[in-house]
Amino acid sequence: MTIPTATYRIQFRNGMTFDRASELVPYMKRLGISHLYASPIFTATSESTHGYDVTDANEIEPSIGGREGFDRMVKTLKDAGLGLILDIVPNHMAASLENTWWRDVIENGQNSRFAKHFDINWSRPLTLPFLGDSFETALSNGDISVKPDPKTGKPAFAYYDSYYPLAPETYQGRETEVIKLTDKASLVELHERQPYRLMSWREAPRDLSYRRFFEITGLAGVRVEDRQVFDDTHRLILELVHSGAVDGLRVDHVDGLADPKAYIELLRQEAGPDCYITVEKILGEGEHIPSDWPISGTTGYEFIASLSDALVDGAKIAGLRKAYDDVVGKPVDMTAELRAAKLLMADKNFEGEFTTLLKLAVAIANTDGISVDEKTTRSALRELLVAFPVYRTYGTETGLPPEGHEMLKSVVDKVKQGPNAPDQAGLDLITRILGNDVSEKASHDAANFRTRFQQLTGPLMAKSVEDTLFFRQHMALALNEVGAEPLPRDFSVERFHHDMETRLERQPDALSGTSTHDTKRGEDARARLYVLTEAPELWSECVARWRKMNATKVVSLDDGPAPEPAVEWMLYQALAGVWPTTLQPKDESGLKALEERFLAYVEKSIKEAKLRTNWGDSNEAYEKAVLDYARYMLSPKNQEFLADFSSALQPFIRAGLVNSLTQTIVKLTAPGVPDIYQGSEALDFSLVDPDNRREPDFAMLQDLPAENDNPDSSTEDGWLSGRLKQHLIQRLLHQRRDAPDLFRKGDYVPLKATGNRAKNILAFARTDGDQALIVIVPRLVFGALNGDVYPSRGERWAETEVELPAQLANRRYRDLSTGKDVEAKDSIAVNLAFADHPFALLTAE
Asked: In 10 A of CB 655, how many CB atoms?
């Protein structure tokens, strides 16, 4: 198997085609990339901007070049010596009429050859929750009628531009008569004879007959656990792997599958031993990818969480929390907030999935003669789901594996001892079902329960934390990231080193990402916002001052002020993260461009919070007030605020740029395969999607200096333009390419800093035999450098040293950035190491 030395993620669609990607291959090669990492390329819905709503897994999307364009791109990659990794989507397909399989299921119900391809409960008609109201209301309003389908000519229920085919047996031999039907009673009767039921989208959370992806009814679960379904959905994928066109696969949302391990084992068997495979998997604190999965690791969300230990000021974050509590008006109990978010998901957003589990549990109890009523069972199930600390366990038809049993026991014990402990009988029932301690007669239902339970805990966790709690609590937005822990914890360099040692041991070939198409903000925005933990008092003073400046734009509504103080805090922090490095307060066009992106983020943020408005039931008065406030923040007429904001932000910007270089260097030298998300090799101040999926300025990026050109870190231009970051990436990727074993297999050696600025240094080494690379980078520089990073001012690091163990001491090193030789005894003086740049990358001679 060829392990990538570095990947470059490209988002196809929205103008990015295979031919355009081919034009970028020379740039990727110069940058030092080994593999292009492509977003889903298979045919998706016509309006798709991302490709995860696949309509044909065995066809390459025509709009981005089709098979011919793909083959041209592959040839260009191979000619340049680059590989290709594909993002595949086994968990779901588009529940769209454009999907011929789904359409066939709509038309033929259980008689469709694809009826078992989708995870559908066929004890009832297929629900199609795509109406704006109930079928009867839509019919009364004249929104539904029977018309010939424009594509097939067959009778169909027409709803605006959508044509839902009628089952052939309900019209054959009388097509003309059926098409002429206008009597509402007759149309209702015709609808009831179909294998499906058209219904309002509002009913989906509580009354859906198919498994969906999270809360998205437009994505229907696929049963890849069925071998025929696996074969049908992976035919082209495996052809591309076997032909050598594709070198690796990234499996999207592996936790959504009925049996992730079995799927991965089958994929490995069919793809072969040489295919590089990673999975999208969010790991909880202390959780590890199962060691018996035949994969190279995860896509790296946990790496972002580890970086926060290196860049967050653990000694001062309590001050930021207190400042936020003061703004909110009371201490924020994150445990209670997390519980509230999870209860919302269990009781409302996933009510249908919860009810399915409850019915199964009650049926199993009845089968086995267990005396537990529905109310008791409901309470126990609810509390277990809410208490679950990880995305899922990995039980099968035979029960839970040992680690699953341990996890379940831990959760049950926690629930028993908690303030909301349910009746013991209910907990015992759920525990028995999950552990397969049931009769043979009930074993089928128990296996079904176990699968459904495990497929629910992941979405419930993701929607509770990432898409609710992280939009409600704004103390430190940099920590509200995919894969991050929702509850307060300690941050330390020691913890970071431990994570990297564990990473090397357990998944050295996993991807290490800092920006993705799913992260809540770009890596450089996050790096800047980490700085707030270093200066909580100053930040609090700034927010208080800005709130006074814009106080006239706060609107009093019946349900409170809009925006409320907590949202004001969020707005200023979010704007601080996204503010371009060179934007001036009087730059009207620049402010306008930023406003468009910022307002879209603000709208999404307050709706995802689900407090005073949401996507389903919008509070227009509240939304208008908050958006008007945000709009005024960026109005050219608001110069007093803009000038103050821009001026106060400068030291945070400068310290954030140092953080940016530190996290970049760490990503490229620590265990794991660094992934460069398109455009993030320069500065990435993007917001949550769709902002983070915008196409970067590839023309600017391709104007890459020669590798030996050395951007001057003592001037502002290299920092503010992102050139210094891009240059460092190029230099280190070439080093990874030239010494792959050092970075893949080499030991990770934490190094201790001592002296005056010890707490401001992160240092480690990678060693493999005689090969060695010493990495020394700054951290927590806001106070250490007084906000001034250009020039590096090596004298500021006087009386600070990095101690070297025997294996690294008394050797000669070469500075990768300057080419200068460095003689090291038993330590390295940081002021000398930082004489030219505020970082040191020293390779053993």
From this structure: 28
How much is the average pLDDT of 194-216? 96
Residue type, 148: P
Residue 126 token pair: 């297929």
State which H helix or E strand residue 86 sits in.
Answer: strand 83-88
Task: Give pLDDT tens digits for 762-777.
Answer: 999 999 999 999 999 9
pLDDT of residue 791: 46
Residue 750 contacts residue 764 (beta carbons within 8 Å): yes
Q: What is the DSSP string of 162-200?
A: EEEEPPGGGTTT-HHHHHT---HHHHHHHHHTSSEEEEE
Q: What digits encode the pLDDT tens for the residues 545-600?
A: 999 999 999 999 999 999 999 999 999 999 999 999 999 999 999 999 999 999 99
| Cα 469 from Cα 481, distance rounded (Å) | 11
- Quick: pLDDT tens for 261-289: 999 999 999 999 999 999 999 999 889 99
| pTM, rounded to two decimals | 0.95
DSSP 8-class letter at 695:
P
pLDDT of residue 708 exceeding 70? no
Round to whole Å and give the CA distance between 591 and 631: 10
Element (H, E) at 677: strand 673-677
| Residue 127 backbone phi and psi in degrees, to 5 | -85, 135
**Cβ(280)–Cβ(90) under 8 Å?**
no
Q: Euclidean distance between the first and final Cα of the chain, in Å?
A: 30
∠ CA 617-619-621, rounded to 5°: 160
CB contact set of 508 (below 8 Å; sequence gap of 6+) = 297, 671, 672, 744, 745
- Statement: residue 360 has pLDDT above 70: yes
CB count in 10 Å sphere of residue 470 = 23
If you ran DSSP here, which 8-state letter would residue 283 be given? P
For residue 630, what are the contacts with CB-CB under 8 A and spacing of at least 6? 571, 598, 599, 602
Q: Are strands 827-829 and 42-44 parallel, antiparallel or unpaired?
A: unpaired
**75 CB-near residues (< 8 Å, 6+ apart):** none
Name the residue type at position 251. V
pLDDT in tens, 46-86: 989 999 999 999 999 999 999 999 999 999 999 999 999 99
Amino acid at 514: T
